[in-house]
Every structure is written in structure tokens, then in C-alpha cells.
Amino acid sequence: MNTHSAHSQPGLIEKPLAEIQRLIDCLLPAATQVDTRKGGAINLVKQSKNNTEFFVILLISGEIELYRTASNNLLFATASGHNVFGLLGSSLRFNTYKFVPSKDSEIYILPREQAIDLIIKHTLIRELLTIHSFMSDIQAKGGNLLINSTAYEIVSTLLMELADVPEEKRLKISVANYIIDRSNLARSGVMKILSELRIGGYIDINYGKLICVNKRFPTVY
User: Fold this and answer.
1) Which of 31, 40, 60, 164 is the most buried (most CB within 10 A)?
2) What pLDDT, in 10s, does the model give residues 122-167?
3) Could you give phi then psi for residue 83, rounded to 5 degrees?
């Protein structure tokens, strides 16, 4: 159920589902499944004394949470299957983010060099570039939200994002924790903004869970 389709904010980044599927179909036969039941992060970089090896993650189902290790493990994004990570980037980028899959996720990995060879062999360069552009847009959007926005703008943007989460899952998520985990905002400030939006009739919250967004948020707070 989409709780606020009439009030969605502009700038929605569309996930390139077809391109992701074509890449997964190409790479999956060469990949090895990861046991995610024990939890923990997946490292996309393995360094030895004389070599640095990069890996690609294929997320078939479930979720992966991306944390910024350089920002006190700030939760940057939650990605759901299907998805591909690690095709482009350096040690700096991969050491900046921590990839933590859910314990029920289905994930495979393979060496990046092997993945690139397969992509070239099957002429999937356009798909690779499309996915890279998508990831770059997500990164830029997340960075702009935290750098160039007021506390109110961050809260309202993350509320709209949360409202897009399917109802069955959304009703298990604490609104305050969802916002705090993804920002550097103090809990007291987040709770104040949520309370005022609730009093104004902009949102319905029950037992700390977001029920729905009722109308477009005010532009001035």
C-alpha cells in the first residue's frame, strides 16, 4: 500500500531493474553463495602483502544495510534485492562503507576482475554504466541531504522515504530510530519535529510507528 502517492517528493531515483537483472543473470553462475545466517559485514576488499583483491556482491533477496564507517557508522541506505555492489570503485570507497546483509538474505560474491571479464564478454557495458550512474545518484542524494539541509528538511525527507516502505514492514519500524540512524540529529530535536507534524495533522503515528502521511509537509518550519 502506498500511503502518500499524491504527496511524493520530486527527485525520486528510479532503480534500473532490467539492467540489474541482466547483470545478475550473467554473473550468478560464476559466483559463490555467502552464509549470512551468522550476521556480520561483507568485505569487498581483501588485502594481502602483495595484492589487493576486489569483490562484487550479488543481492538476490533480502536486504543489505550500508553504513558510513567514516561517519560513526551512520546508516546510509538500505538496499533490497535484486541488487549489485562493487563493480566500480576503489579501496577508499569500499573502506568508507560497510555492507551488512540481513540474516535471511540470499547473497553471492565473485572477484571483480572475473565479473568485469564476463561483462565485457557478454557486452553488458551499458548495463554496468547505468548501474554506476544509479549508485552515484543515490550517494549524491544522501550526501546532499545531510550537508545542505536543515533538521526539519532531513526529518521530512526521511519520513517520506519511510512512508514508501511496505506497510507490513513499516509498522515494525520505530519512526524516531529510522531517522536518527540515518542522520546526525539529536533524538530530542527529532521528537520535537515529529510531535509538531503530528499535532498539525501531517502524519499519523501510533506506538512510535508511522501509519501514514496525510498531506504535504509545510515548506517553512
Assistant:
1) 31
2) 999 999 999 999 988 887 777 777 777 899 989 998 999 899 888 9
3) -160, 160
- The amino acid occupying position 71 is S
Closest CA to 57 of 29, 88, 16, 86: 86
Which positions ≥6 away from 199 have C-beta within 8 Å? none
Residue 168, all three cell numbers:
507490513
Percent of the chain as helix, strand, coil, to the nearest 5: 45, 25, 35
Sequence-separated (6 or more) residues with CB below 8 Å from residue 204: 198, 210, 211, 212, 214
Query: Are the CB atoms for 190 and 178 separated by under 8 Å?
Result: no
The C-alpha atoms of residue 162 and residue 219 are separated, in whole angstroms, by 19
